[in-house]
Amino acid sequence: MVTSKEGTLHAVYDLRWSQDGDLPGDIDVGLSSSKDGGLTWEAPRPVMDMKNYLGESESKNGVGDPAILVDEKTGHIYIMGLLAHGLNRGWYWGISKTGMAPKETGQVVISKSEDDGKTWSTPQNITPEIKDPAWQLMLQGPGAGISMRDGTLVFAFQYKVNLGTDHEPRYIARSSILYSKN
User: CA 104 to CA 138: how far, in whole Å?
Assistant: First the structure.
């Protein structure tokens, strides 16, 4: 949850349409907003929906585990999510592979609002810019990012790396940060 420069509270979460489990599946990122300090809330609405991305049905284009951030300089709001493409069931933390292609490994997508959360840009896949192909999975947050005084935007970040061998892999989760100065 974040507070925009206009004073609106914005909360993001998974909209799990036809399942109660985690990614993959038919999951979108939802948003609820409050203009009165949380006393009342707008109805949940999808703000990040991968629809038929790369020719797959919505049930194989889940996006979830959102993280949200308000850019204190511009007032723009960003949401990042993990895209699980090409699968409609399983436990994505365990089945995502190394590599870069959407059907191999999780993808990080980002969307922006320039009007206090009323409308959102089409999600952009930034995986090629930020992922090491050796990582089994990488994702933002979930949670809220921060905007630093110098304009740097920062999200918490996690990834799985193999500390074993090709014959006996031993994937370990690591914490990091993802940041942008532009």
Answer: 12
From edge to edge, which strands make up the β-sheet containing 124-125? 124-125, 107-113, 77-85, 61-70, 143-144
Beta strands in the chain (DSSP E): 2-3, 9-16, 27-34, 45-48, 61-70, 77-85, 107-113, 124-125, 137-140, 143-144, 146-147, 153-162, 171-180
Q: Supply the pTM of this predicted model.
A: 0.93
Cβ–Cβ under 8 Å, residues 70 and 105? no
pLDDT one-digit tens code per residue, 94-132 = 889 999 999 999 999 999 999 999 999 999 999 999 999
Do residues 151 and 73 touch, judged by C-beta distance below 8 A? yes
With contact defined as beta carbons under 8 Å apart, do 102 and 76 qualify?
Answer: no
Which among 97, 66, 85 is positioned nearest to 160, based on CA atoms? 97
- Strands 61-70 and 143-144 turn out to be parallel
Per-residue pLDDT reduced to its tens digit, 132-144 = 999 999 998 789 9
DSSP-derived 3-state class of residue 84? strand
- Mapped onto helix, strand or coil, the DSSP state of residue 50 is coil
* Distance between CA atoms of residues 176 and 49, nearest Å: 26
Q: Give the 3-state secondary structure of residue 181.
A: coil
